[in-house]
Amino acid sequence: MNLDVIFLVLLALVVLFAILLLAKTVRIIPQARAGIVERFGKYKETLPAGLNILVPFIDRVRYLIDLREQVVSFPPQPVITEDNLVVSIDTVIYFQVTDPVAATYEIANYIQAVEQLTMTTLRNIVGGMDLEQTLTSREDINSGLRGVLDEATGKWGIRVNRVEIKGIDPPPSIKDAMEKQMRADRDKRALILSAEGQRQSAILTAEGNKQSQILNAEGERESQILRAQAEREAQILRAQGEGQAIQTVFQAIHDGQPDQSLLAYQYLQMMPKIAEGDANKVWVIPSEITKALEGLGSSMHEITGIPKHSGGPRVRVDMGPTEAQLPKPSGDPELTSAQKAVEAAIAEAAAAANPGKRVPAPAEPPTDPASAEPTGDQPGA
């Protein structure tokens, strides 16, 4: 019984030792990892990803290095600018381990080393810039940090891919001053744009008024010219008409050869015109009018300077038709009857206007249209 227990204990120990030996011999490295193997405390080899066989109890995986690109965000750090202003800058570093052996044995803690190097380099770069340049030159700061860090970390087996500045925070007083400055700058630009707009508007308005006044002046000038031309032509036409009227009257008087009776009748016609008007209280009758009345009442006396009988033939001036000219009736019986009715109405109106004068009856319309045309002047009695 005791032998069986001892055998089982020994068997369990052997199995346990075999499992431990297998665990020390076989080592599985994950993808994108690298294992640093040491033998008796000395570097032996670097294990790649996958299944690896080690010498148990002699070889040992000391470090497991991550070969992927890593992102490290550093807390904000106070940095003094060239114009003695303290700003708070926080950065982000993107780096990757390219040499696991160097990253293990060349530097004790490469993440802390990168952080400190970033802070010192950032202070050197920002210290040569003023606040305005610091706020507007992020790309220059990133490039400068990346160059310095890549050069310094190359011997550590680390490659810095990117350096980004997350934020640059000036003091609250500086923020307030910057906001006031920006507000004042925007107000100034707004006032400048408003003034330029008003100036352009005034210029355009003045140009429009100028063009309007020029056009109005040109229109007024042309209008005055046209009115003057029209007035001149009207005066010329009136003068010509008056001249023709005077010439016609003068010619008619000379052609008619007026005698004593006609001039006496003209004197009688002028008497009512002399008496016209409210201001004519007293008026003088010319002596020629009395003599004309005497000559009109009796043909025994003669007025001085006026012949009793004019010599030579008398010519009656053709004054044109005295009756309304109606269109000649056509062959239509209805139109002929209408024409006759119109002529009869005209005759009746003339008879009513002159009761003592005989009005000839309307004549039959001539069959030949040429016979109805006037033949010219007719001699008087």
TrEMBL record:
Segments for region (Disordered): 304-381
Its annotated compartments are:
Membrane
Q: Describe the location of the Band domain by residue ranges.
A: 24-182
Residue stretches of biased makeup (Low complexity): 338-353
Q: What is its main location?
A: membrane
- A single Pfam family it belongs to is Band_7
| SMART domains (alphabetical) | PHB
Topology relative to the membrane, per the entry?
Single-pass membrane protein
Which UniProt keywords are listed?
Membrane, Transmembrane, Transmembrane helix
The entry's family comment says: Belongs to the band 7/mec-2 family.
Q: What is this protein called?
A: SPFH domain-containing protein
**Organism for this UniProt entry:** Nocardioides bigeumensis
